[in-house]
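Field log, afternoon session.

UNIT: design team B
ACTIVITY: writing a sequence onto a fixed backbone
BACKBONE:
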């Protein structure tokens, strides 16, 4: 976007820092929600295991990979 000539470089810099701070907060919130979802799925796997052990192992591996890839 165009920067008005009357605006100083410091204003543009501060605005950029504010945007980065907000994006960082959003990312942190998303990571927290993803962790809660994965934890709930893991809990469900242990409380209600599949009849097929291979399916159960695949679900657990998938959940672990989601945590690791973060």
């Amino acid at each position: 976007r165009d920067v008005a000539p009357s605006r100083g470089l410091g204003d543009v810099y501060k605005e950029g820092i504010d945007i980065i701070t907000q994006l960082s907060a959003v990312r942190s919130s998303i990571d927290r929600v993803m962790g809660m979802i994965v934890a709930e799925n893991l809990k469900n796997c242990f409380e209600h295991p599949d009849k097929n052990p291979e399916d159960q192992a695949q679900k657990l591996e998938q959940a672990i990979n989601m945590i690791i890839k973060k």
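LOG NOTE: DSSP finds two helices and no strands in the chain.
NEXT ACTIVITY: expression trials, pending approval
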